[in-house]
Amino acid sequence: MKKKLGLVYGGKSAEHEVSLSTALAVIGAIDFTKYEVTPIFITKQGEWRCGNAVSEPLTTIESLRLAGEDKPHDVMSFLVNEANELREFDVIFPLLHGTNGEDGTVQGFFEVLNLPYVGNNVLGSSTGMDKVVMKQLFEMAGLPQLPYVHFINAEWQENQEVILQQCEDKLAYPMYVKPANLGSSVGISKAETREELTEAIAVALKYDRKIVIEQGVVAREIELAVLGNDIAQVSVAGEIKAVSDFYDYESKYADGSTELIIPAEISNATLLSLQTMAKKAFKAIDGSGLVRADFFVTADDTIYINEVNTLPGFTPVSMYPLLWQKTDVAYSDLIDRLIELGLERHAQKQKLQFNL
Domains, the chain, ranges and CATH? Predict the structure, then answer.
């Protein structure tokens, strides 16, 4: 029997287009002899468009958008079919990057519906999305980090001078200014002066009410992939070499200027330390399914954790699948494994006692 798989993509998010690229890659690699695939497109306006099951890959971004074009444009089309019958899914595969997809909100929706789904649960997703909460959990776990300052928009509007002084007292230029709850490097700026810092904060506040400012460091950017539930595996390490000042949105998805070196040229001792820290970070956010753990490694092999991404880029040329490919796990096998992990976690939860 084929498993009934719901593939959810798009979303009301600044990372909508990234999600479509991920979905196109995944639906192109799924084994249709194992799965009956139902495309579920969420528009930029948040409309849910559930199409009919497909028996072969959709091959263009436009076909992904049109998958449910002639169907009802609301979340009920995901729950109930045209015959007014409840839809049946064995598992949901959310491929939603950023807000309302990677932050625990849609995961909570699937939990309420008691549907198995791929990837991190509500807690892992939400803490992995909020860079401030993530950093606080990393501190509790004893993971080394660079200094940072955080604040919300209301505090900024009331005490701009105080916050700027706090940044300069605690951090050194250059600083990196980030929206706390966004991925794919959207809204991130580098600041080398107070004027640039003020401008960067204004940009970040367009995307989130909470801002985190981190001290820059001269270091290599090293990433590892984590796979599992309660027991996790970690891949080989890969290095990001971006032409721009940092690994921004353009270098990730648009201009092809970034070089990915896998495996990274690091010592066995450094690799072991990175793999240990990646597992510790995965546990700190209560991760499940998949996480990409990102680190800075300086010239003297000092390691700082940067962040984890609970739904990293997932095209065949993205770092997460490439890391597993170099660890002898093919792209299509990785998809199968993630689906198995989602089903495994759901089955474990069903064994819990829910009454006294």
Answer: 3-117 (3.40.50.20), 147-215 (3.30.1490.20), 220-348 (3.30.470.20)
